[in-house]
Amino acid sequence: MAGGAHERRRPDALPVRRRMSCVLPGGNMSAAVKDIWENSRTFAGITNNHSIMKYLLVSDIHGSLPALEKVLRFYDREHCDMLCILGDILNYGPRNSIPEGIDAKGIVEALNRRAGSIVAVRGNCDAEVDQMLLDFPMMADYLLLVDEGRRLFLTHGHIYNKVSMPKGSIDAIVYGHTHLWELTRQDRTLVCNLGSITFPKGGNVPTFMVYEHGVFTAYTLDGEVLAQESL
Fold first, then answer.
1. Which of 1, 28, 30, 49 gets the most CB atoms within 10 Å of its CB?
2. Which residues contact residue 205 at a Cβ distance below 8 angstroms, ignoring those fewer than 6 apart?
3. In whole angstroms, what is the distance from residue 214 CA to residue 90 CA?
4. Which domains does the chain have, with CATH numbers?
5. Helices 65-77 and 104-112: crossing angle, nearest 10°?
């Protein structure tokens, strides 16, 4: 949610100078992708053309271990392959109340056990000290995920969003930040706001999404389906 670190200036267009490699679920990050993450604070990218993968997408955890544990149980139960975290992981932020079950250390331990199958971007409430604790890169402003030829632009939402779209060809923009879940179309692009699993706003329930084989599904924290859209 807005009110954390100062917002950074957005690049004008998607970089296209690098060929992206693949992050394999359950294993270590490939050398090419690791190099991209470690040498760029702006963006990173992965491409999967090898198999159908199930991605669980979550944003705005804000330090709540009980909420994260529900998501991780769903992840295991539904046999997901990769966990995509779109910012605001450990810090609850100056505009929010202290969440139930706040436990930054517990979140670090839970996520580091799964570091090989996590990709993440930086939210406006995330800090460099968070990166020192987490075993997976999370300092990039956005991640370009290419899955079966479909281009998914993953970001936190304070720089890029449905009002401030990235330039370039993408099939979906996926973010959080506002704590208001959404699954709608804007021209030819699918807009996917994950909401928040900890601080939902606007009368919404805690939410996250799953992407598999061209389909986004929005879930409540209890695992009930709210909506579904195909690319």
1. 1
2. 220, 221
3. 30
4. 31-230 (3.60.21.10)
5. 20
Q: What is the pLDDT of residues 40-55, one digit of tens each?
A: 445 566 667 667 899 9
Candidates 183, 22, 13, 26; CA nearest to 118 is 26
Residue 112 and residue 213: Cα distance in Å, rounded? 27
Q: Within 13 Å of residue 124, how many CA atoms lie on the same side as its CB?
A: 21
User: Do 206 and 219 touch, CB atoms closer than 8 A?
Assistant: no
User: How far is the C-alpha of 104 from the C-alpha of 173, rounded, in Å?
Assistant: 28
Contacts of 163 (CB under 8 A, 6+ apart): none
Interacting residues of 152 by C-beta distance below 8 A, sequence separation 6+: 144, 145, 146, 170, 171, 172, 174, 211
Q: Are 186 and 35 in contact (CB under 8 A)?
A: no
Q: What is the pLDDT of residues 186-210, one digit of tens each?
A: 999 999 999 999 999 999 999 999 9
Rounded distance, CA 146 to CA 115, Å?
20
75-127 pLDDT, tens digit each = 999 999 999 999 999 998 878 788 889 999 999 999 999 999 999 999 999 99
